[in-house]
Amino acid sequence: SQMDSEDGQAYRNTQAAIRDYLAVEVPKFIKGQTELNDKNWSKFQAALKTRKQEKNTQILQRVVDNALSK
Q: In the chain, where do the E strands start and end?
């Protein structure tokens, strides 16, 4: 199953920002440049939320649910 055009466009629009953010921030955690603690993890999650990561997860879940229902 595929995304409809509206979901596909919404996903693409936000996924680029999410991917760019992850490319910068994840290595900081891995290299120890950003301490992995509750405060920094909460900031990381909040930043993903502002980039509409939850909406993209919902879109992908809908695609999976539709595929499994067939």
A: none
